[in-house]
Here is the input.
Amino acid sequence: MILYRSLATAGTTAAVFAHEIGKPIRTIAGGEKTIRRRVNKLCPDNIGAQLEPPLNLIVNASERLTRFASMQIDFLKREKRRHGAVNLNKVIQSLHDLWKPILEDAKIELELAPHKTDDAVIYGAEALVETIITNCLTNSVSAFERPGARTKDRLIKIKVNIEGNTVAIEVEDNGPGINMDINEIWLPGKTTRQEGTGFGLTIVKDSVLDLGGNYSASTVDNSGANFKFVFPLLTNPTNM
Here is the structure.
């Protein structure tokens, strides 16, 4: 319970941080531009060339901070917590756009396979769907950081597919796989990482159940992990 409350506090703090970080980031960006101007004006060309790489690192770092901050703010939008018709294709596309630059920094390709038509719609809150997928993406990134994990051709796939009167979301990676009892991964506090909380997949499970769905996990080709979530298909979303 203390850990759960600590996570809630961390989330609140992250939201405040995301809102407040904009000003110092702009200060950093402005300072970097000022340095470039002065270097170009006052220093020989060889000095300017030597300063170019560290200045580019400053730019890249400030852009990463901006992306992380915008992600936190985007997750907390009020309209995402309202219940109604949720188009899964649109949600995964939005998350793809949000996560792609972050995953590129980690040398991970994010591949989408949306349902071929635009009728993969469920009833619920968009925030819950984002919670499910985001926690899975976070787990995949952590798996790629484990000792011995592949460093090349890293891949995460998000698939959406209608199966009869249900619609399934699958999040699959080619990382080192699930390194604990697959029946225990959904339990609170179960983690193999020193810095882990063990609540990520518990939150996923609870979010899936809140949406009236079911969940499963499996190992892919003796290494990667696959998480599948199946929800009732909303057959007449126009009447919502």
Remarks:
- The chain has six helices and seven strands.
- The mean pLDDT is 84.
- The two ends are 37 Å apart (CA to CA).
- The helical segments are 2-20, 22-42, 45-75, 88-105, 126-144, 200-210.
